[in-house]
Structure prediction request, 363 residues.
Amino acid sequence: MSRSLTVESARDLGLLFAGNPHGMIGQDGAYSIPLGDETLWFFGDTLIGRRQANESLWYPDGKPVGPRDMSGVGGVERMINNSGLLVPAAEGPDVLRRFRYICDERGELKTLLPLERDEHPDRDRIWCQHGVKVRDQVYLSFIKVRMTDEPTPPLPIGFEIVGSGLAVGSTRDWDFRRVTRADGDSILWRADEPHFATAFMLDPASGRVLLYGTVRREGVQRCYLARVAPDAMEDPDAYEYLTSPAPRWGRHVEDAVPIFGGMPSELSVSFNEHLGQYLAVHSLDLTGKIVARTAPHACGPWSEPVTLWTVRPPPRQYPVPYPTLIYAGKEHPEIAADGGRKIYLTYVEFEEYFPHLVEVTLT
Prediction:
């Protein structure tokens, strides 16, 4: 019998990874991917350099940064599209202090999914999503975006989504190659299709890999579900999509049905032992609330959202011409404690631009 979800207490534990030896001054995303003895944390745009006092990262010298690569802009010495670090596998937040970034042969932060020859740093971004380890290989999901001259409200920067895809690599060298279709295209799901996978989960019942992906339709961001056999992850034609809550599955992504909505794009999904059911965590649009939904099965039916934490950032010390943006809410179930009664969430406030950790104790 599953339990209802209520919050007993919650507290903000502060910024993650801000004190690091690499001059990393900001990054978002913060997906965590269990690998066995370690956990990989996967990040999006990562800035290296120094922060200018009383100045926005996005408005150096009071001017919008625009679409270009931020390397050499303001106090930013280097910008990379995505990066990763490793922590030991253990319960509780203390393990996050024992992090080490994945670096290249020069000792600099390594781009896990680098741009390819037809992509330009002033135009193209490869942003992180979630990942999963299957046997001895690691699959990372990404969204490819193209930067635009005009901002995408309410953001102070502009971009359009090209689509999403997968890359596969090894923990031996952290080199990844993109999975491609027969025609060589690495975009497996187009801009108007769900962007698989913002959350992966191994389904113990079927042995398949479940992929949760989101896309904005009719003004609402919605979540969809796909599945694939572990040994077929590199075959784009092998994926099935949830086409009915019955559940029924089909081969055509255009037939997929949404299972819930309301996230900016990112979320997490896991099985919570304390609740005896599945737990999905995400930001509630851009309201500043981080919410949870529960379901008896991985495909639903999912409950209405319950607020776990409401972010109340401190007043800004300098003016910026855009509203406060809270996004990237998700849980990190591999560090949950007390059988899942105590869970840990992260979110990002765009101007602060560091993952922020929150501890939530469930009733």
